[in-house]
UniProtKB/TrEMBL annotation:
Enzyme Commission numbers on file: 3.1.4.-
Xref: InterPro entries: Calcineurin-like_PHP_lpxH, Metallo-depent_PP-like, Phosphodiesterase_MJ0936/Vps29
Name under which the protein is recorded: Phosphoesterase
Pfam families recorded: Metallophos_2
Length: 163
């Protein structure tokens, strides 16, 4: 199963560039996971019509987006339990907030965003993934996303960076 992972798109205009990105880089993925901060309902509509889509809301998303998505989502794909959460909050740091959100949930992988900082790390046996941002890199050098391939006995992970 091939999964495209994005977060923090913060798109308010030029949705056609986002569609071009999907057509170019996510054509082969089976599922798209977005870990929040879409900003625009158009982004969700495009994702819903493009591929199988799983997403959660982020701290800057409007009530309309929050009504369509959850704050926290748990899905099972290829036998892996995956937790998805944006990462917002005031306690600790983004990584720790994402981990704590699923502390009681027997999770294999946690996908989160919020910091706009690409990250792959394990924390107490859980694979922690932050794809960074496609459109708002803040202090980072590159924009980024993840291609994650899940197999019953292995995980293949590719970070993709671009300027």
């Amino acid at each position: 199963m091939k999964i495209g992972i994005i977060s923090d798109t913060h798109i308010t205009k030029n949705i056609s560039s986002f569609i071009d990105f999907l057509d170019t880089y996510f054509k082969e993925v089976d599922i798209i996971i977005h870990s929040g901060d879409y900003i625009s309902m158009e982004v969700i509509e495009v994702l819903q019509n493009y591929k199988n889509f799983i997403g959660v809301w982020g701290n800057v998303d409007e009530p309309e987006i929050k009504n369509l998505t959850k704050e926290k989502e748990i899905v099972t794909i290829e036998g892996y339990r995956i937790g998805i959460f944006h990462g917002h909050g005031t306690d600790s740091n983004t990584l720790d907030r994402a981990y704590e959100k699923f502390r009681e949930d027997d999770i294999d992988i946690i996908i989160f965003g919020h910091s706009h900082q690409p990250l792959v790390k394990t924390k107490k046996g859980i694979l922690m993934l932050n794809s960074g941002s496609l459109t708002n890199k803040r202090q980072e050098r590159w924009y980024s996303y993840i291609i994650l391939e899940l197999h019953p006995e292995s995980i293949d992970l590719q970070f993709k960076f671009f300027s």
